[in-house]
User: Fold this.
Amino acid sequence: MSTPGLPLQTSPFWDFSLRLYRRAAFRAACLAIQDEAGADVNIALFLLWQASRGHAFDAAAVARLDALVAPWRGEVVVRLRAVRRFLKPLESGAEDDDVAALRREIKTVELESERLQQEMLHREAAGWGSEAAAEPALASRHLALYAAHLGHDFPPAAADALVAAAFA
Assistant:
């Protein structure tokens, strides 16, 4: 989630996300909940961050979070990700240097779109949660609420890895 040369603004939420995303096991867990359960990794990260700060969310708040970013996610983030993924196998073709350069540029823009989505969550959801103990059980509950909202279970090993990283 970091790209050299891209001037990203930081926030406590973005810094938390970057810190966790540097870990290979965390990235793999994020991909698992995204690809296997249709999760928005930024929402999962936001819920983990809030749990680490002792802010509890209920099912209604999780649904509001999803609704808040759904248009941006669908029209911007998901489309950029699809183009980047489409280009990956083409890098081995005759114009692989040009395709690879284009893919890197799209990855940079995709990353910025993710940061902007995180800013939406950070700004709009301030004060939505109630006070609770900052503990792994709260993060697990947040992820379970989000999985229920999506109508898909998260792979247990992935959910455990996400929670463990948030409280490491």
User: Anything to note?
Assistant: The beta strands are 55-56, 130-131. The chain is about 70% helix and 0% strand. The helical segments are 12-21, 24-37, 41-52, 59-87, 96-124, 136-150, 156-166. The CA atoms of residues 33 and 155 lie 7 Å apart.
